[in-house]
Amino acid sequence: MGTRSRWSAGAGAVTAGTVALTAVLAGCGGNGGGSSNPSGSGRKTATSAAQAVTPSPTKSYALSKAPQTIPSVRAFTPARGPGWRPAGGRVVIGDARLADEGRLIAGELKLKYAGKVKAGAGDVELALGGSGGPESYTMTVRGGRVRIVGPGDAGVFYGTRTLKQEVHGGALAPEGVVRDAPAKPQRGFMIDIARKHFTAGWIEDRIREIGDLKFNQLGLHFSDDQAFRIQSDSHPEIVSPEHLTKAQVREIVSLAAQRHIAVVPEIDSPGHLGAVIAAHPSLQLRNASGVPTRGAVDISNPQSAKIVDDLLREYAPLFPGAFWHLGGDEYQALTVKNPEASFPQLAAAARKKYGASATVEDLATGWLNDRAATMKPFNRSLKAWNDGFFRGGSVQADKSLEVAYWTGKEIGARPPEEYLSAGRRLTNYNDEYLYYVLGQPNAFFYPTGRRIYESWTPLVVRGTTPVPAKYDSQILGGTFAVWCDLANSQTPAQVAAGIRMPLRATIQKLWDPDKPPLTWTQFVALAGRLGS
């Protein structure tokens, strides 16, 4: 994208004889479906203490309190017992597929990794099983040991993240049962590495950070007008001096996969291709007077499609994850009053390809569909920015394209309800809350974690007003994005510090969009205690 013109702790403290808050987390989202419904209705359900798991009758221990974590766990059944802390136990697994998760948590808690053996006193056991979505898990602390079980390895991994936070700084994992699952299947963080170079080490630090917070996507916007930031073998001439090598990208992708994070690459087109144009000036779009259009390729020129398709095919194997972002926003030919008059070559190409009534918007939609066709053999779920979808016209955007909704300020931008009522699925990039734009140009302001925490939910797609709740299942999640429009306004260290609390607020609301159990002041204090 270009220069932008623009969740009491857990179930609460419970004492003997009071009502306990419990829930059965029956499902959660995967990597691309609709929102999860952890208790059938998406809400915690209250039952009497007699209906809940009966605490141990021993009087030696007080009834436990829900753990405090970021994001907060969605349901906790308290119990009486000593709890658990890492002190000489082991990490054991019930399935070889959990070896990576086992080794990671063992190293973090300074425990011995024992592999696939029977669990004993003091151990942490990881296992596959149970019902629910692939990102759900149940963690039981009982009898001096911990058991984390989930239907998929991602859920088990998230259980280890909860455990890691519970025992941080020598604290105790409380006796009882956590049942947890995310409300939304897509929980993303995006970095504009095109306008500002970030080292592989900086990116890897962010992967570790967001992995511990249960994010599951990392977007990399690596091509724009200012630079092209990843090594290319098919077109080395377009690559900027400061860039990531393919070996570094493979390490980034591998680390992300270990943390159950899909890397979502973006080569934006047909706008934001200035770095490509710098090496191939003949591809630049010019108006009827011969004036060049910044960052835009001439989509009537077959060579423009060829170079972009070369790059898509080259990078698809480098990024083997489930998602790909095609861009599609801010094509400058569509920002003028009369695109057909200003760019007659585009108007002629539209009529030739799509019929006499076709427009430049149709040609741009056809471009987006053609890029989707290029990616079809790679079996990716494809995203495109909302202002790359147009109302009416002779050509409609591919129905499989997911709308990445970022703004209502662009020319021709439509309300999110228009996409949702047509049955499209959408991810929330609301620039009112989720855009961290370096230098704060064009009326942007650095977003505060407090505002996200107290005011935003995934239903707030545009501005500050939520869309109707009936569309919740079509909103797949959200992404907090860093854009580097004025790249030198902050150092990478300042960016990391600036996004720390907004990231935590965002994941809280993506994991559970209900009113958070802590006040903002309590939430900030918790983040400080966790060292996260």
From TrEMBL:
It comes from the Bacteria. The active site is at E330 (proton donor). Pfam families: Glyco_hydro_20, Glyco_hydro_20b. Residues 67-181 form the Beta-hexosaminidase bacterial type N-terminal domain. Residues 32-62 are annotated as: Disordered. One of its GO terms (biological process) is carbohydrate metabolic process. The keyword Hydrolase applies. GO terms for molecular function: beta-N-acetylhexosaminidase activity. Residues 44-62 have a biased composition (Polar residues). Residues 187-491 form the Glycoside hydrolase family 20 catalytic domain. Keywords: Glycosidase, Hydrolase. The keyword Ribosomal protein does not apply. Belongs to the glycosyl hydrolase 20 family. This is Beta-N-acetylglucosaminidase.
